[in-house]
Structure formats: structure tokens, C-alpha cells
Specification:
Strand order of the largest sheet: 1-2-3
Number of strands: 3
Structural class: alpha/beta
Helix content: 40-55%
Length: 116
């Protein structure tokens, strides 16, 4: 979970940990790149509106799973317009969630792109 908001990171971590997920959080893209290299996550959530989103391309190109190619990148945004969703696709995201998100939305994104 890459987001400059401590609240978003903690919320996601709490929700997903309760579901049995191992969660790594990062404040910015540089922190994220090292954690992705160390932990090889199955999925990456990135805030599109913050300075973190500038790291999406390096995150996308460096994120690999244990068993196959790249980790899916899910964009998070407080905006839900067509332009905002298009921006997420342009920078390489597979999915787009609007903040505040629910546990079901987070789990749905994981299930859609990684499986149960």
C-alpha cells in the first residue's frame, strides 16, 4: 500500500491484515521500490493524486510476483471522474478504487487480479 496518507495506509493494513493478508506500507515511491524488491508483493495499491504516483512506472516495471510476471497495480484516488480513471490506465494500473474504499472493495480488487 503506497500512499502519503497515514490514515489510508493504516486503514488498508488493518482491514487486510484481519483477512489474513500480509501488508507492507510505503510513504513514497522510493520506499516502495525497496519494499517491492524485498517482499515481491502479489498486488500493489498506489495513490494516484500524490507525489507517490510519479513512481508508478518504476513500481510497475520492478514489481514482480514470486511465480509470474508483474504485480497488478491498483490506483487509489479520491476522484471518480472519467478523466481520473483514464489517467490511472495511462500510467499502467489494472484497476481503480475510489477513496474512501471499503474492505469489500479492497478484497474484490485482490480477488479480481490475484485470486483468493
Amino acid at each position: 500500500m503506497i500512499d502519503d496518507s497515514k490514515t489510508i495506509r493504516r486503514t488498508a493494513e488493518t482491514l487486510l491484515t484481519k483477512e489474513g493478508c500480509e501488508v507492507f506500507t510505503a510513504v513514497d515511491g522510493f520506499d516502495a521500490l525497496s519494499k517491492i524488491a524485498d517482499h515481491q508483493p502479489d498486488i500493489v495499491f498506489v495513490d494516484i493524486m500524490s507525489r507517490v504516483s510519479t513512481a508508478t512506472r518504476p513500481v510497475r516495471s520492478s514489481s514482480t510476483t514470486r511465480s509470474s510476471g508483474r504485480s497488478p497495480v491498483i490506483m487509489l484516488s479520491s476522484k471518480d471522474g472519467l478523466f481520473d480513471r483514464a489517467r490511472g490506465r495511462i500510467v499502467g494500473s489494472e484497476h481503480y478504487l475510489t477513496k474512501p474504499f471499503t474492505k469489500d472493495e479492497l478484497l474484490g480488487a485482490i480477488e479480481a487480479h490475484v485470486g483468493k
